[in-house]
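Can you give me the bound-state structure? Components:
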Amino acid sequence: MVSQHGILLAVGIISDHFGPLVAKVCDCLLRHGELSLQEIVRRLELSPGQVKNSLLVLIQHNCVQAFSAPKGRDRTVTLYLAIFDNVLHRLRFSKFLSVIRADIPESEVLIEGLLQNGRLTFDQLVGRTISKVPEGSIRPAREEIRMNLNKLVHAHFVERCPKPEPFIDPLVVQQPTSSRRRAPKNFEKVISLEQKIVNTADLSDAERFSEIPYIIEDASDVNGCSRDPVDSAKRKRGAFEVDEELNSTIAENEVLWRANFEQFTFCLKKKFCADRKKLKLKVGTHPIWESFCEANLTEKDTDSVTSPINGILERLRQKEGGASMTLDQVTRVLEDLQCTTSNENPEAYTFDLRKMVESCRNEEIESLVKKKYGQAAFTIFRLLVTQGGPVETDQIIDTTILDKQIVHSTLYKLWKDDYVDTEKISSVAGTGYAQFYVWRAKSTFREQFIDNLYHAALNLRQMVNYIAELLLEGSKDDTKLRNRKNILILALTRHDDSLMLFHDF
Amino acid sequence: MPPRKRPLEPSSGKPPPPDVKAIVPPPSDPPAAAQEIPPISAAILNNLPGPEREVYKRVYAAGNKGIWSQDLRHSMQLAAPTVTKLTRALVQRGILKEVTDVRHRGKKVFMDSRMEPAPEITGGTWYHNGQLDTEAVAAVRRRCLDQIDRLGAATPDMVHKGVEREDPRAGYMIDQIRDILKTMALDRVLEECRSTGEGEFSAVRSGRVCYRRGGAPQGGMIEGIPCGVCPRIDECSPDGVISPTTCVYYKKWLQMDF
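Here's the bound-state model for the whole set.
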């Protein structure tokens, strides 16, 4: 369940991007869950046309998924569900673009088109790409654009859009269709209805990332450029080719493509963990860590990074001071960096991102506790978190070696702000005490922290909009206001890293 | 209820396996003498009148944890002034003493004057006159940190020996050093880890729990903006009395007058 400020933030983003009407529909869906068109119309008192158009916009931008659900015995109804994660991803499109700029720079314009327009066919992408070329420059060939899109699909940055309206019975527990999403047997994760619907709507991995077949056609040359004679020579003829051509035409004209946010999130997660780890590295180990991150080729799951030792060494040789390092030194450093090898593949090192993310989350919360309540609170809170269970007041005093009065006042402050919970336990006769107090870190402190993150992001956005309004009025010093606005936008971008750490990683 | 401090354990016959890879056999620690409780004094009992003798017996029975004057009053079913008079007389004669209970500083706790108060009463090794000796704690933390900086990664035993070598008069017990190291790990000044027996852990036997310097403090991403540490965040809403556009913290942060 999304917290109150999370909903407000998502609605704020939609309102800024698509206007108040679409935001109203999104708000309704986020608050009430899956609803039919009639139910939305009834709740919002808008015309069916307005709601329908708003839903179309939201679906086009992957913020809403439609699905059919049974109604009565043999009737079905179309329900609409807001996808909160995808709404929030709209905050970080600039980060997604920078990922592509670093990885596949030639495909940047394509991903920009998909992020701006949500879903596009290849033909639309070609048209858009050509229209973006400045006058006088060489227009890119259709084949070149196809190749660039295929690169994005191959790297899983772009995928084919999910089924438009899958049949789902919300009462029946659905199994995830995608093998990539399947959790290990011993790890039973509770999947939300939203996730179940998204999983059911998703195509299989083979379909999702199926590239446009490489067939050259004489006709339908959008930009009018003539074909490369060498490429044309490759063309084959026959019944088989007709099917291939048909597939290619369908893939170009009918298949809708969209950005795969999961892959972007994984890239940002890897980058975040790599940067965070860098700060803890000892002198001389930086090149090894960098080589390990760069050598990552196969991505089995989004919770770990695996790199073959040969790849690591190859990259290390290209770095300053890396050529002189022996295999023994490198493996020792990798082990020290908590990179492990498995029995299946002893030549590859794996780094557990999940563990790293978990420790980063703890560090963030502990750091806030330290800033707000001081060093003593930091120590006590860490003790309670590491112990996991209830700890008696005197035991806290003994373990932390802090003054009793300080411990008491700190525990009170933490309890008042809902970081810790307390319980009074009656003492048995003969101990000389009537009762004891035990303390434990509250299980909800993380949810509360995340809600505060949403609240802070919401406030930053509100301030950006407020300054934008002041700029439109033109009553104040423009340069000063513009600088303040830039500070706020930068702060929001940085703050989004925290949001991603707690919500997406 | 758990004891306030681990009592000092007498050394067992079998020495524990060494943490450090044997280079020079470490000198054995002197056995920590368990605190002995003196037997009840017949001479004192014979010299005391009836009610005072009864008070003394009860206080003696409470041992080194002492007895609270209220408990004494209830157990003897006497009036408060009478108990006060009796205990005062015994204190003046040097038979009983009044000690401060670290947990309840306002309580009057009496004890046989020949006994040393238990750690539950005194607060343990880091307390002096019922108050935490912050200077002593800070001093031993500094010494431990110096040893860790010198050794790289070290077990509590190694740190203890290093501290003893540098200042033999300090007289810290291994348990004290262990407690301090644990607190420093909680503070993230140190990091608790298991030795691999290689690299920086080459001096420590593989698998042993040891301590090394914790990395630079991380986190604090949310603290960069006013809302991160705002005490009024719960009262803030987009259209409320407290909102970002009326926020004094934002005004100060952006150095602007709205």
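A couple of observations. The longest helix of chain A spans residues 445-473. Chain A has a mean pLDDT of 82.
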